[in-house]
Amino acid sequence: MSDAVQVHSVADGPADGPVVVFSGSLGSDHRMWEPQVKPLTDRGFRVLRYDTRGHGASPVPPGPYTLEDLGGDLLALLDEHGVERAHFVGLSLGGMTGMWLGVNAPDRVESLVLCCTSAKLGPPEMWADRAKTVREKGTGAVAEAGVGRWVTPGFAAAHPDKVAYLREMIAAVPAEGYAAACRPIERMDLVGDLPKISARTLVIAGAEDPATPVEHAEVIADGIPGARLETVEGAAHLGNFEQPERFTALILDHLEVAR
C-alpha cells in the first residue's frame, strides 16, 4: 500500500472512545455525515470522517483508482490516527470500500454498516460514460442528476436549501477525482467475496434508492454470514442525510451491541 495518499479527515468526540469511521459516496465529502456526528459523539464514540481521494480536501492523484487504492488509503488513515480496529460505516462507494476492508483486512474491522451500496453495480459502460462526461464538462454537469438520485422528489421539494447544499457539494469535487473514482465501481464485482467477510454486519437500504435499489442490499445481506438487512422508507440514495434519525438509530443500535 505504498501508494496510499493521506486523505483529509475530521475527528470528533472523546479521544478514548470506540472509533467509528465514516466513508462517503462518489461525489460527496465528509460533510455528508454531519447528521450522524452529534448523536454518536454524545454516546461516547470517536467519529472519524474523511474525504475519499480525489474528493473534498484530499489529494487528487492521477487516476484511474482501484478499490484497493481506496482501501489502502483507509488503512493508512487508521494508522495515522493510531487506530488498531474500528467500526466502519460506508455509503455507496464508501460501502464498497468497507466490503473490500472486510475481505482484505478483517483484523482492522470491529463491525460493518453498509448503507445504500452494491457488491456489483453495472453496467460498466455507464460508469465509463459518466467519467468521460465529468472529464469533458466538469462535475457541475452531473450535479443535478446526482442530487436527483441522492434524495426523493418529496424531500427535494420540501428542502430546496438542502438540495442546493448537496448540489454544490458534488459540483465542488475535482473533475479528475470524480472521474477516476468511477473506475472502481465500473470494475467491481465483490459478490463472490462476500462470504469471506466475518465482521458483524448491518446492511441498510433506502426503499426509494434508484442508484442501488433494495435488491442490491439483499445480495450483500445474503452473501455475508449473519448479516442483518434493514430497509428505510422514504429514503433515496443518500439515506443517512434524508432520513437521519432512522439511519442514526440503526447505526447506533448496531454499534452499542458491539460494546
UniProtKB/TrEMBL annotation:
Residues 18-243 form the AB hydrolase-1 domain. Pfam families: Abhydrolase_1. GO terms for molecular function: 3-oxoadipate enol-lactonase activity. GO terms for biological process: beta-ketoadipate pathway. It comes from the Bacteria. Gene3D superfamilies: alpha/beta hydrolase. Signal peptide: none annotated. This is 3-oxoadipate enol-lactonase. It comes from Amycolatopsis regifaucium.
